[in-house]
């Protein structure tokens, strides 16, 4: 699946959609940013509830192409601006991490 298809496939709200339309390679679900830095694969989608600009910085270091913030958490402007500056897609979902992870896994393994 390509990044441009992510919002439609998972029923996500696009918060920041200025990004390169990459092929999504994997997903990674964690709220522990050090775990993300050490274990997430490049060109993956990060599923988290961490809604702050440090999440974007970690995603950039790890080569993550998109972040999905779960549980309808509010997303601050500085997080959106940081994602735009880094070219990382930023999305929001009303679903929790467990449900969204399952949906992403299913979409990537069709």
Can you count the beta strands? Answer: 5
Side by side, the strands of the main sheet go: 1-5-4-3-2
Task: Label the overall shape.
Answer: globular
Fraction of residues in helix: 40-55%
The parts where pLDDT drops under 50 for at least 5 residues are none
Biggest sheet overview: 5 strands, mixed
Report the β-strand fraction as a percent range: 15-25%
Overall pLDDT score: 97
From the N-terminal CA to the C-terminal CA, the straight-line distance is: 9 Å
Structural class by sheet pairing and helices: alpha/beta
What Rg is obtained from the alpha carbons, in whole angstroms?
12 Å
Number of discrete helical segments: 5
What is the ordering of alpha helices and beta strands?
Answer: HEEHEHEHEH
Task: Note down, in words, how this protein is organized.
By secondary structure, the chain is α/β, with parallel strands linked by helices. It has 5 helices and 5 strands; from the N terminus they run H-E-E-H-E-H-E-H-E-H. It has helices spanning 6-10, 33-39, 53-62, 77-86, 97-108, and strands at residues 13-16, 26-29, 44-48, 66-69, 89-92. Strands 1-5-4-3-2 form a 5-stranded mixed beta sheet, with helices on both faces. Helix 2 (33-39) runs parallel beside helix 3 (53-62). The longest helix is centred in the last third of the chain and has 12 residues, at 97-108. The protein is globular and about 35 Å long. The model has no long low-confidence stretch (mean pLDDT 97).
């Amino acid at each position: 699946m390509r990044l441009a298809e992510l919002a439609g496939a998972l029923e996500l709200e696009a918060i920041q959609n200025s990004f390169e339309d990459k092929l999504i390679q994997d997903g990674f679900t964690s709220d522990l940013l050090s775990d993300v830095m050490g274990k997430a694969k490049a060109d993956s989608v990060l599923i988290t509830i961490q809604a702050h600009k440090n999440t974007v910085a970690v995603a950039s270091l790890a080569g993550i192409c998109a972040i999905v913030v779960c549980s309808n958490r509010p997303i601050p402007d500085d997080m959106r601006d940081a994602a735009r500056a880094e070219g990382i897609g930023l999305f929001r979902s009303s679903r929790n991490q467990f449900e969204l992870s399952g949906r992403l896994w299913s979409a990537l393994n069709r």
